[in-house]
Amino acid sequence: MSSAQNKSTNAQTATSNSPTRATPRSIFVSGGATGIGKAVATKFLDAGWVVGAYDIDDEHLQQFQSEYPQLIIGHLDVTDAAQWEDALADFTAHTDGTLTVLDNNAGVIGFGDITEQDPDLIAAQVSINCTGVTLGARAAHQYLKKTPGAHLVNMGSASSIYGQPHIVPYSASKFYVQGFSQALDLEWENDDIRVVNIMPLWAKTKLSSGDAQSIKRLGVHLTPEQVADKIWQAVHPSHGLTRRRIMYSVGLPSLLLRYAARFAPSIAVRFMNKLIAQ
């Protein structure tokens, strides 16, 4: 065999033995500058994932990146479809155009009776909590469908178990998230994208800083890290039956309330929620 032929054979052998570069596991977190979003981003960063935290809070994003230089950050108003498109294109430029998990985390709450809440705050709750989640899913679909084991994680709430007074627009918006998650899980099944809805009670974030009666009755016991742990569990289903699960309560009280609402008589559920929230 000539020297040139030998070099060619060696090159072919080296190419055939070279490992295929694996698609990086990645998660994009909206509202990722603080609170639960930051806890989720941190959880996945510590596990070696490629993580993007996007938010309107540029100052806290910069602080977060100073703690984790590998973190990818960017500005995102979730109510703007064009910004979603740009943010996801920016992030997936670091992940070979794929996305393992979109965490639709951004949200806002208003406290007080519906007649006392500012109209702009009411509109913001619907726009951010409902439209923002929908636009995020729409923009992420093209990247998720290219990734085996892809997940859309929607941040719901235990307030969607039964409508909650004094946080009415917020509670109603989380009913939207629940229905949206159920419907989209069916719609995207053929694309092998699993959709889940995370339903915590009050967690120790700015969203629980109001004076809702349910905060006083139930207390604020969950940490953002516990919610992040539940999201990690949700996107790592252990078997086929788990992959069909959509709703994830966080903490035993949330789980008990959800199952009580499912199996107890409706009049009993109403009375229980009246005791909690009035």
TrEMBL record:
| Tree of life domain | Bacteria
UniProt lists compositionally biased (Polar residues) regions at: 1-23
What keywords are assigned to this protein? Oxidoreductase
Q: Does the keyword Ribonucleoprotein apply?
A: no
Question: Which residues does the annotated region (Disordered) include?
Answer: 1-26
| Database matches in InterPro entries | NAD(P)-bd_dom_sf, SDR_fam
Give the family, as the similarity comment puts it.
Answer: Belongs to the short-chain dehydrogenases/reductases (SDR) family.
The record's section on PANTHER family has:
DEHYDROGENASE/REDUCTASE SDR FAMILY MEMBER 7B, DEHYDROGENASE_REDUCTASE SDR FAMILY MEMBER 7B
State what protein this is by name. Answer: SDR family oxidoreductase
